[in-house]
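Re-run with default settings, no changes from the original entry. Doing this only to confirm the output is reproducible before filing.
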Amino acid sequence: RQLRALLDNSPDGMFVCRAGTLVFTNRRLLRLLGRDAADDLRGRPAATLALGADRAAFSDFLVTAARRREPGAPESLHFERGAQPLPVTVSAVPLLYRGEPCVQVTVRETT
């Protein structure tokens, strides 16, 4: 519970994906994307958070992050907030989440 509270109160959006699929999102990410509930995103391909033009690059970013043993360089792209582009910087680190290899991504709005 304490870890969840820490993540939910982060000033940055965060999510965890396993094999490219969203398994965890914090409250800040939901607010950034204009979503009401984590269930709106859970189970969805993580790459679909990015706007169409940035989707392939974000997918490659996630694949590369999963292969690394350390954090990679941040990348700037656009996520989708409703029908509007949301400029963000993302950074990622591989980790184990519930015993499974995953990628934890931090999302910072850059507007």
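The CA atoms of residues 89 and 108 lie 5 Å apart. The helical segments are 2-8, 27-32, 52-67.
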